[in-house]
Amino acid sequence: MHFPGCNISHLAVAASLALWVQTGYAAREEHTFEVSVSIPTHDFYVLPVDPGFVEREQQMDWNLVNGTLEPLRTLFDVRSTSGAVSARLGHEPVLSNGRDLIALNVIFNNQPLLLTNTVVVPDTEANIGSRVPLLIEAITPDAGFSAGEYFGSVQLVFDASFPMH
């Protein structure tokens, strides 16, 4: 078969180029992932030192020797140039396996948190910024801990107090 204006070398180059383009896509990988950043204001922030702490599930370890749950501990950086920082729980912190409940104590900067606001960092400390501990510990049920897979959540709500003039 003869194509006017084409010779064999043109057809060979075109065919090999087409083959090269097709095989060029045979080994291809693509990755898509989310990227985000939260840049706090310099006036008010309450952020975990380990940013992954609030992004991943926290595991309370079972102590086989004494039959208790090990508490969770982490540190937060806190600053408020407008006054003291108060905190409260968004809901009762409990772990559940669908039948049994394990209540949790949540203590921020050595202050037990409740469903009502409690000052956790006084204005003198908050104004310059400080690093404070968070402790979450299980309350041993009266009947002891029951076996099972437990899940729950802890919601912390922080507010900056405005000084009274």
Automatic annotation (TrEMBL):
Signal peptide location: 1-26
Entry superkingdom: Bacteria
Gene3D superfamilies recorded: CFA/I fimbrial subunit E, pilin domain (2.60.40.2040)
UniProt keywords, alphabetically: Signal
InterPro entries with a match to the protein in the record: Fimbrial_CS1-type
Name of protein: CS1 type fimbrial major subunit
